[in-house]
Every structure is written in structure tokens, then in C-alpha cells.
Design goal:
Elements (H helix, E strand, L loop, with lengths): L1 H20 L5 E10 L4 H5 L3 H10 L1 H4 E9 L2 E6 L22 E4 L4 E8 L2 E8 L6 E9 L2 E11 H4 L6 H12 L8 E9 L17 E7 L2 E10 L14 E3 L1 H22 L1
Parallel strand pairs: 6-12
Antiparallel strand pairs: 1-2, 1-11, 2-3, 3-4, 4-5, 5-6, 7-8, 8-9, 9-10, 10-11
């Protein structure tokens, strides 16, 4: 325990010292590759291996993505690089309804802004940054040229998936309400690797708050890994805050999409 405390103190001290020697206009870009696994559940049990492979290939654009995180000492903007559908050659327009839009974070002002488009309507999600109680570890490893330290956290799943939708999640909550049960708060275990060599408290998606840039993060069935970093490019980078759309908080946005999906299901039922 004494060693762990000493190690943590050294990491934070190194972060603060490194921060002090960087210029105010310190900035960079980090490129991430994200890969998710897919559980086909009871549906998959009835499929052949060839059919499973075909489904996963069809959904590849939703399971494998690339992103760019542009950052300075206080701000960051996280954007998905758009890809064409592997089979149709078109962009995955339906899937975009339940994926994260451009995401802005400011660690000085505790500000979170993300634009979302849901069935043609634009929303501007404004909220505070996700609170994360990180536990620092003594483990280290290298990612590219950077020495990284390990950190773990447990975060309410709904705080990470507020922009997505799941019929199974809705059915579970409905059953709990009908049975008078207290809704269970599901938690997601997160493992992150950050480098104090890049002294910014930033990271991909909702993740931030560590004494160094997060270069790898695993949460649930998804792992995100940084494969390229560009530091202090000659051309200055301007980080713009998303500003188009109806302003709404995260959980209010979740209620909007759940309500719309229920309405669509009810309408289909009446038409039948």
C-alpha cells in the first residue's frame, strides 16, 4: 500500500511538473481505432457459423470505427471519421441515430457539449463532464513511443450509453416498473491507460480526468486504442464548440429517443 501511494504521488507530481514547462498553446491530435464485439444471443444460437460471419461483416461499420481527438491543455473535440458501408457503399444513416456525435470537453469549465441527430432532428446536448473516480495502478506498459500507466473505474452504464437505444434495456426497465422493483443500476467496468508524457487531462469519448492523455480504454465490449499522435503541428488547430441544435441535457435526450422508439413500435402495432 505504501508503494502504491508513493507511485501515485510520483505520477501526479510528474504530470504537474510537465504541465508547467509546456507553452499555453500546447496542442495535438490523437487518432483512435475502436473495435466492439457482438453477442448475437438466442438469435445467434440458431445461426450457422457462415451466417454469423455474414451478419458481423454487414455490421462491421458499427463494430469497427476510427476517431480523431483534437486537444489542447483545457479543451478537446472528439470526432468519428465517416466510413462507407462495407456492402452497400453508402453511409450507415440508420446507425447514426444511435451513435455519438461530435463531442467537446473543457476540463477547466467542467463543460460537455455533444451534437446529436435523431431521425432528422438536431440536438445540442449540454451537460457537466462525467464524474469518474479513477483508481491508479502501479502497472505500466508502452503504447507506441509512450509509457502508460493503468487506471480503473466503475461507471453507471447509462451515463456512457445515454445517446444509444436497446429494446432489451427497455423491456427490462418496463418489467421492473410493472413488478414494483427498484431499478437496478448497472455498472460498466473501465480500464484505461494514460501517458503522463502528454500532460492533458483528456481522452476519447466520455473519459477524462487522469494525469495524462488516455491512449487506450476498454469498457464493456469495446476497446479503443490510439495508433497515432501528432504533437504541436505547425498549423494552429482551432477547437470549435458544437452549437447547432435544440439544447438538452443527457438524460433528457435519452428520454426523447426512448419515447420516440416506443411511439414507432406502437404505430407499427396499430398498422398491423
Amino acid at each position: 500500500m505504501k508503494y502504491s501511494l508513493s507511485k501515485t504521488s510520483l505520477i501526479i507530481a510528474a504530470f504537474l511538473i510537465t504541465c508547467s514547462v509546456f507553452a499555453q498553446d500546447f496542442q495535438g491530435k490523437a487518432y483512435y481505432f475502436s473495435k466492439s464485439s457482438m453477442d448475437l444471443g438466442r438469435w445467434g444460437a440458431k445461426m450457422s457459423e457462415a451466417q454469423k460471419k455474414q451478419v458481423k461483416e454487414r455490421l462491421k461499420n458499427r463494430l469497427e470505427k476510427t476517431y480523431v481527438l483534437t486537444f489542447n491543455k483545457a479543451e478537446s473535440i472528439f470526432i468519428e471519421e465517416e466510413k462507407l458501408d462495407a456492402i452497400s457503399g453508402a453511409t450507415d444513416s440508420w446507425g447514426k441515430n444511435f451513435t455519438a456525435g461530435d463531442q467537446y470537453k473543457n476540463v477547466k469549465t467542467n463543460t460537455f457539449v455533444q451534437n446529436q441527430e435523431f431521425y432528422g432532428k438536431r440536438f445540442l446536448v449540454k451537460d457537466k463532464l462525467q464524474t469518474i473516480e479513477w483508481k491508479l495502478s502501479t502497472e505500466t506498459k508502452k503504447i507506441g513511443d509512450y509509457v502508460c500507466n493503468k487506471a480503473t473505474a466503475s461507471i453507471p452504464t447509462q451515463n456512457l450509453t445515454w445517446y444509444s437505444f436497446s429494446w432489451s434495456e427497455l423491456r427490462k426497465k418496463t418489467a421492473e416498473t410493472e413488478n414494483g422493483e427498484t431499478p437496478e443500476v448497472e455498472m460498466t467496468e473501465v480500464e484505461a491507460w494514460f501517458s503522463p508524457q502528454i500532460p492533458v487531462s483528456q481522452g476519447p469519448m466520455e473519459y477524462w480526468g487522469l494525469p495524462g492523455l488516455i491512449l487506450e480504454v476498454s469498457a464493456g465490449d469495446t476497446t479503443m486504442l490510439c495508433y497515432k499522435i501528432t504533437m504541436n503541428p505547425e498549423e494552429k488547430i482551432k477547437i470549435e464548440v458544437p452549437e447547432k441544435g435544440k439544447e438538452i441535457a443527457k438524460m433528457d435526450y435519452k428520454e426523447v429517443i426512448v419515447g420516440k422508439m416506443q411511439e414507432m413500435r406502437n404505430n407499427r402495432g396499430r398498422s398491423r
